[in-house]
Amino acid sequence: MSEIATLKADADALFSRKKTVAFAVRAVIFAYLVYVFFAFDILGLAQRAKMENAVTLVSDSWSHKTHVTRSHRGGAMDYAIEGERKGRYPEGTRPDWVTGPDDALEVALGDGSIVTLLPSNRTLIDIPGFGTIEAALIDGRIETNLSENPPDWVYASPRRVTIRTDNGRITLTRSKTEIFRYAGGWELFFYTLNSPYHGKRFGEIAFGDQIDPERPNWRGAWEDFWGNAMWRHADVLWAIGETILMAFLGTFGAAIVALPLAFMAAKRFAPVALIRSITRRIFDFVRGVDALIWTIVLARAFGPGPLTGALAILITDTGTFGKIFSEALENVDEKQIEGVASTGAKQVQRYRFGVIPQIIPVLLAQILYFLESNTRSATIIGAITGGGIGLLLTQAMQTQKDWEEVAYYIVLVILMVMFMDWFSGWLRGKLIGRSEEKH
Amino acid sequence: MSETTAQIQANYMALVNRRRLYGGLTLLVFILLMATGFNIADARNAGGFWEGLHRIGDYPADVLSEAWEKRADLPGLLLKYFPALIETINIAAVSTLIGALSGLVLSLLATRGLARWPRLIPLFRRILDIMRAIPEIVIALMLIFILGGGPVPAMIAIAIHTAGALGKMFSEVAENADLKPVDGLKSTGANWSQQMLLGVIPQVAPNYLSYTLLRFEINIRASAILGFVGAGGIGYELRNSMAWGPGRFDEAAAIFILLFGTIVFFDQLSSRYRNRLTEGAHQ
User: Fold this and answer.
1) What ipTM was predicted for this assembly?
2) Which residues of B touch A253 (CB under 8 A)?
3) Nearest-CA neighbor of A402 among A413, A392, A414, A387?
4) Which residues contact B88 (CB under 8 A, 6 or more apart)?
5) How far apart are CA A353 and CA B172, in angstroms?
């Protein structure tokens, strides 16, 4: 009986100890999260966060706006998508939602509101359910028929009047009247307005009559798409190529450099402890300095560009590969080397036929895994050193206006990483055999 | 009808030659790819490789000599940037914690035999794939636009990627877990979360902890890099001191030392614990 009692007491003690540990772990995690909550100033963040930025980001990423601008000096009209020169309507053309003669242009905003641009810088804004707002520039001041307390979607002062409608925005300043009309979709994605292929359906271009008298359809269509000044497809593809190139050169370059060094760090192949230790410290050092610092140091020597990024990845990963490879070399099976040696093979041949075949699968698996992960690193390094899709992405984000371009780049980056993931998996399967893969 | 030795030998040599040919061709293609790739990268870089090669040491030498001249200030500078370092480590730690916990749940939901809703396994797998594929910088920059600079955008960005990356590895480990404890718990009427918590987690915990520690190492680097694009911590301080150029190299040097020391310290720490964890699992 007493034996059972002691067993039970032991079990109870074990249980209560485990309970205490489990509780302590949770308490520590909770306490840490509370500490971080205050260290990161989450409460202050909630106040600083600009939700209107989030709205802009989400709505702009899949829509575009067309600017209709009237200069208050001379009354010249300008129609441009996103207000950019590259998106301007050619002279003498205008969007089909702008109607009427030149002295009474009617701009339909698509939500029922109609803006009428009258001579001598007068503007009528007809908003359903509200009425007509009249504004005019008189002696350098903007006069309106608005009451003292306008609704909250209107801002009015003598220098500037802004009116937001459901689908547009009208801004009057002393120099110009500007109307934005929002619409869904990525406009001009295939062709800009100055291309003869704009607005043509695929069938018309592929099978229809020759559109541009100077070029066959297939060539003109390709040239105008590829040279699209708004979306810059050629530049974007180059940038993606640069990013993949950085990852490719960095990863395989590191593998080539690390392999011979790994022999010097493995106990079995480098009997001198000092050499081993020095090589290992070198690996630790280049890994510890990290790609960020290498990028900064190398950018000073080589200037910005893909080569700098590739070298930064190369140097950092030499350390990582060196460590992994030398561990793989330590675990090499001695029997194969002995077998090769028994045929009278020299040192180099022993390595070539006794060691390399054993470690190749391990090495390749690691290299290909890093190829995929380095594609992501190359995106970030490109943002710092100025190369590849990372640079385009940060530039587009920092200007904070072309969110549809940002969305385009993000989609491409994700597709690129997924492609590299698939590609490295496929190559691994080809080179090592499917059995290595678990899923 | 039996083949003569000569025939066998000839066949064998033909086979060997073909293999050598293929191997040689692969090697040739690879060398060509590397060489062209290098030339393209070299041509598109602002400065050339060969002109820059002898200048590699210039910048570190400038930084080191200036830091050495002002070595008396160094302890003060190290102390000054220590809070920023703590922030970088905190970003990495919290994002690893949150990422690992969400990765854990997602991985169990995406594993055959364990999933709560087996029909939704492909859905959860795709979610993990996408979380893994989005580079941290994309989410960080978008969140900086909304939330302003600081540690939180970096934390969320790294946590999302961590959840995806760990989720995939966790799910591979969980696939090999023994299902008997789960069946036993099921027979006592345990619900799904109890089955997972008591039946699966104890089996896979050493592996999971080891992967999580490795991620923590990676995340410290990531959090320093994201700081450089505006997300707070030591990376942000580094960019500021870099922008000053010569005259403030002592500050850059202090930050380099802190960053290098931290990375090496946590590398060693985590590799020691990981060794203990995996050795414990083998016993």
Assistant:
1) 0.86
2) 34
3) A392
4) B220, B223, B224, B227, B233, B234, B235, B262
5) 33
Nearest CA in chain A to B256: A293
> Cα–Cα distance between B101 and B105 in angstroms, integer?
7
Which amino acid belongs to residue A196?
P
Q: pLDDT tens digit string along A321-361?
A: 999 999 888 888 888 888 888 988 888 888 888 888 888 88
The length of chain A, given as a count of residues: 439
Distance CA B236, CA B233 (A): 6
* Candidates B130, B134, B146, B155, partner chain A, best to mutate (most A CBs within 10 A): B146
Beta carbons of A192 and A89 less than 8 angstroms apart:
no
- Helix (H) or strand (E) holding A91, with range, is none
Q: Touching check for A376 and chain B: CB below 8 Å?
A: yes
Q: Are A358 and A294 in contact (CB under 8 A)?
A: no
The three-state secondary structure class of B133 is helix
3-state secondary structure of A259: helix
Single-letter residue type at A78: D
Q: Which residues of A146-161 are buried (b: 16+ CB within 10 A; e: fewer)?
A: eeeeeeeebebeeeeb
**Cβ neighbours of B20 in A, within 8 Å:** none
Q: What is the pLDDT of residues A38-77, one digit of tens each?
A: 888 888 888 888 888 888 788 777 888 888 888 888 778 8
Please name every residue paired with A164 in a beta bridge, in sequence order, or none if there are none: A169
pTM above 0.90, yes or no: no
To probe the interface with B, which of A376, A379, A412, A416 has the most B CB atoms within 10 Å?
A376
Six token digits for residue B144 = 């900086």
CB contacts under 8 A, A 270-329 vs B, are 284, 287-293, 296-298, 300-308, 310
Q: How confident is the model at residue A434 (pLDDT cuts 50, 70, 90)?
A: low
Quick one: tokens of A369?
Answer: 């895994």
**Segment B49-52 long-range contacts (CB within 8 Å, at least 24 positions apart):** B49/A302, B49/A307, B52/A301, B52/A302, B52/A303
